[in-house]
Write a structure and sequence with these properties.
There is one protein chain. This protein is mostly beta strands and 704 residues long. It has two domains: 142 residues, Ferric Hydroxamate Uptake Protein, Chain A, domain 1 (Beta Complex), CATH 2.170.130.10; 547 residues, Maltoporin, Chain A (Beta Barrel), CATH 2.40.170. It has nine helices and 33 strands. It has a 22-stranded antiparallel barrel. Strands 1-7-8-5-6 form a five-stranded mixed beta sheet, with no helix packed on it. Strands 2-3-4 form a three-stranded antiparallel beta sheet, with no helix packed on it. β5 and β6 form a beta hairpin. The protein is globular and about 75 Å long.
């Protein structure tokens, strides 16, 4: 990261898109899409993206190959090339974080407020081993605002920003602040944000219950800079007093998380060193939220409490040699511990004991890698890498609400009598080559073998009855899920090719086409082991099991300048288009949560301090589904958005309209509307979750 960018005020860092800032992400070649700031390009700024949603994952909207599976208002799950959740590795400021919830209501991206994001990047499919292991879908890299320093001799530098927004669709309001005091070698900064929203309305004007949320975040950064080194210490706390989940049985009623993060980067005569250490502690509670209790007066009280701790460190070195060669070596350790218990409810069948879902669960991951990047000549660059990860998992004995009822004792005893320790030795390999025959064309081809071990719930969730298995569900389909101690790690073999045509300066026009193919051995699918019948609906009890699977598709993205004049400023057309298909080769059915054919296009204009755009989002009909999960089909739809922004001195005003024509549509990755079924069962049908209707948005940002 160049010092000129480091010392710019926070506000400037929030204005527009730019190229990757991380040294590691710039040097190891592979498919990558990054949103950061600042830039002179006429593209959608980070501020405008934040205005549409408080969900940090929503900053990925419009990126090639990326879709979002609906969750809570700040907790959706990114899907990369048809692979989601734990199949995607997410680093937040270098921390590898884990969902500490049987419903994955607190995914990694939910722990950083969108107002604090400086850059967010996606490495899809064929990724260098230096980026991380334990994933088969790709890697998301999120960085918060970097520390600010003054120029030598400038004295104390003061900088910061305040912002606020409003969205009409759910009466959402929020604000954030940041501030820093810095000398030429020492910097101290504070950030904070609060977001609050009621339920949103669909295109018919109906309230979609259990979509409310409130999130509060605060953080502090202390940094010390040397001649060629940077030491950064970050601390933060998040409190979510409530977040509804319309496609889940339960809602989040509290999430408390605290973190510490230490990072040291330095340049030496022999190369570079990047060292990180971190700790995050999460207390998480679920129960039937306020909307579900109103919908069903007899809705049972079912408290669920979870504590998860992420602890880890990483060491990476980068050693140049023989002029045009780089060797990268690294070691990474990550430990995740989890206790998931459900307190008893006196006078009900959920008593007299606490239900132990995951008892003293542990998942340790030890990784080492070696990577060689070589620039053979001006036209050819290659990257070869190998990585090994030792994954050790264990958990204690479990028990149900009753120590005498066979509903609990039979499956608990069957689980407890087995050895719970599982050790996986996972090997990843990546080979990438880039050919640049001219300044206007770049071609890349890559192959990767990637491996992911099961998570704690996939291996150790033991309850087989309908009610308790239904509490283990991060898929939004209202089915029940049972773990499997005999699961093997998933192994994905991916072949990808990319052709990128552009102007010689990479500034005005571009067209990029990327087809890919992935074959997954031991894909963690499901089999049906039971069901629950209602008058007009059936929900399944599903057990995780290894199958083989196949995915293939392509991404197309590009931009094209349209005009440039003194009267109309500059204009460009920008867009992306994606297609992916997934199939379970054992069952012959489609994989769950595969995005249908979709595209995003934006006509943008920059003129005299204004940035204006008309956006078009196109989504095709979803007809290939996973029948075992009772996945709903959805119709095709098109949405139109408008946005404008004006910058006057240190004040920025953003205005926008999303879903301009108030279109009613169902989210292809939204799962089902469980609240609606609660209200109408046993006579109602389960419907696909509808998306938000028209919303007017306004945002203000003042920098100093």
């Amino acid at each position: 990261m160049q010092s000129k960018n480091i010392i710019k005020p926070l506000a400037v860092l929030l204005l527009t898109l730019a190229e990757p800032l991380s040294a590691y992400s710039k040097e190891a070649i592979s498919q990558e899409t990054v949103v950061t700031a600042p830039s002179e390009k006429a593209e959608e700024s980070m501020v405008s993206k934040r205005l549409k949603s408080s969900d940090t994952a929503a900053l990925l909207n419009g990126m090639p190959g990326v879709a979002l599976a609906a969750g809570g208002g700040v907790s959706s799950l990114p899907v990369i090339h048809g692979l989601a959740d734990d199949r995607v590795l997410t680093y937040v400021d270098g921390m590898c974080l884990t969902s500490a919830c049987a419903n994955h209501m607190n995914p990694p991206l939910s722990y950083i407020a969108s107002a604090s994001v400086s850059s967010i990047g996606v490495k899809a499919g064929v990724t260098p081993v230096s980026y991380g292991g334990d994933n088969i879908g790709g890697i998301i890299l999120v960085e918060s605002d970097p520390p600010v320093f003054s120029w030598p001799g400038e004295g104390i530098r003061e900088s910061g920003s305040v912002s606020a927004y409003y969205r009409s669709i759910n009466q959402s309001i929020g604000s954030s602040f940041s501030g820093a005091l810095a000398g030429s070698n020492v910097s101290f900064g504070l950030t904070g944000s609060i977001d609050h929203a009621n339920n949103y309305r669909d295109g018919h004007g109906n309230s979609v219950t259990s979509t409310y949320y409130e999130s509060r975040n605060i953080g502090a950064t202390l940094a010390v800079k040397g001649d060629s080194s940077l030491l950064t210490f970050k601390a933060g706390h998040q409190f979510i007093p409530g977040q509804g989940f319309v496609n889940q049985w339960m809602d989040m009623i509290e999430n408390n998380a605290s973190l510490f993060n230490l990072r040291y980067k330095s340049d030496y005569d022999w190369g570079k060193l990047d060292a990180k250490a971190y700790w995050q502690n999460t207390y998480h509670k679920m129960n039937s939220g306020e909307d579900k209790v109103v919908l069903v007066s007899s809705m049972p009280d079912m408290p669920m409490e979870t504590r998860g701790i992420d602890l880890g460190y990483s060491l990476k070195t980068e050693i140049p040699f023989a002029e045009k060669n780089i060797l990268r070596f690294g070691h990474e350790f990550h430990r995740f511990t989890l206790d998931d218990k459900w307190p008893p409810v006196a006078g009900t069948g959920m008593s007299p004991e606490s239900f132990l879902n995951i008892n003293n669960g542990k998942r340790d991951r030890y990784g080492v890698f070696a990577e060689w990047e070589s620039r053979w000549n001006k036209k050819v660059t290659t990257v070869l890498g190998v990585r090994n990860e030792q994954v050790r998992m264990d958990t204690g004995d479990v028990s149900g609400y009753s120590l005498t009822s066979s509903v609990y004792t039979i499956p608990a005893n069957a689980f407890n009598t087995q050895n719970h320790i599982r050790n996986d030795s996972n090997w990843d390999m990546t080979a990438l080559a880039r050919f640049e025959p001219a300044s206007t064309a770049t071609y890349e081809v890559g192959f990767a073998r990637k491996t992911r071990s099961p998570n704690l719930y996939e291996r150790y969730a033991w309850a087989t009855n309908w009610m308790c298995s239904g509490m283990v569900n991060w898929f939004g389909d209202a089915n029940g899920y049972v773990g499997n101690l005999d699961l093997k790690p998933e192994v994905a073999n991916t072949l990808s090719f990319s052709a990128d045509w552009h102007d010689s300066q990479h500034k005005t026009w571009e067209l990029k086409v990327t087809p890919y193919y992935t074959y997954i051995n031991d894909y963690i699918g499901v089999i049906k082991v039971g069901s629950k019948s209602y008058t007009s609906e059936i929900r399944d009890i599903l057990k995780f099991i290894n199958h083989d699977a196949r995915l293939y598709g392509f991404d197309i993205s590009g931009k094209l300048p349209l005009w440039k004049s003194s009267a109309l400023g500059s204009g460009q057309l920008r867009g992306s288009f994606g297609y992916v298909r997934g199939k379970d080769l054992d069952t012959g059915s489609g994989l769950y949560h595969i995005m249908p054919l979709s595209g995003y296009f934006a006509l943008e204009q920059n003129v005299a301090g204004w940035n204006n755009a008309v956006e078009l989002q196109l989504v095709g009909r979803k007809f290939e589904i996973d029948p075992l999960r009772l996945e709903p089909k959805t119709a095709a739809y098109a949405l139109v958005n408008l946005r404008t922004a004006y910058q006057w001195k240190n004040l920025r005003v953003d205005l926008g309209v999303t879903n301009l024509f108030d279109k009613f549509y169902s989210l292809p990755l939204g799962g089902i509307n469980y609240d609606n079924f609660l209200h109408t069962k046993p006579n109602g049908n389960i419907e696909a979750l509808a998306g938000p209707g028209r919303s007017f948005t306004v945002g203000l940002t003042e920098t100093f």
